[in-house]
Predict the structure.
Amino acid sequence: MFLFESIPWYSALMWLVVLAGLMIFNEIARKSKWFSIILFIIVPIVLTVAVWPNTAGEGSSTGTWFHWVKVYSALAGCLGFMAIRYVKGWDKNKYILMFPAIILAVNILEAVIRDFQVYSLQGMVDGVMMVGGPWNIMNGIAGILNIITISGWMGIVISKDKSKDMLWPDQLWFWIIAYDIWNFAYVYNAVSDHSFYAGAALLISCTIPAFFFKKGAWLQHRAQTLAIWMMFTMSFPAFVGDSKFSVQSTHSETALWVVSALSLAANIAVFVYHFYKIIKHKRNPLKVEVYTDLAPYKAIAESAK
């Protein structure tokens, strides 16, 4: 196969189980404040003390600085978004509303730095096969463009229904797709043997809810599914790499070129469109939302009322 070695039926079935599990836990957390507190505060404390020092230590495939930073930054996002959703007045504070954009940009930047680092790596590193090359630089640039095109955080609102979702009307489908392609390329570049689950299943688990269950809440879905996955994979690192269900990358340079080229092309397209809208409508993206004239933006904004 092009991206991966053979995918046996039981691995394909497990992929669906992982996808469904992430979406189910996300939905329960989305609708229950107390479940979220247990899942994103109590469980990580227990894992940090009793589990991760043994399962995600030096030499483990999840024992790198990136995995440790990623799990805590994802959890920080979950807790920050919960505060915006549930603490009275926080959703009206323009400085606090900068937090979602900042934590998102930081998460992307972490991966960009790692992509640039992997450029010079070859062979087994921390239990993961690395095939560094120009594709890492291409995808790192795509990630930077993805950060630049983040906009409209000042328009974040909380839905009026029982779930009290954090909605970001200016974060529309084309930016999300460009992010997904970039992030898959990053995982495929930097931890390719994990990308069957940590790339494809994880990204789809937050994109489906954002498109079909609760539009406008993509970042909330992303933070929660990412935190859940990172806690799982740091507790059971062998699952993606050495278990019966693991699926290995082909480590094909052609595949690496293709996914990174698609990532760069998608993010260049969004970058061009983003600044076209800014220039045409004379909008300052640091002060106002960019896509208020588009139907998808209006649909999300209307759903929050």
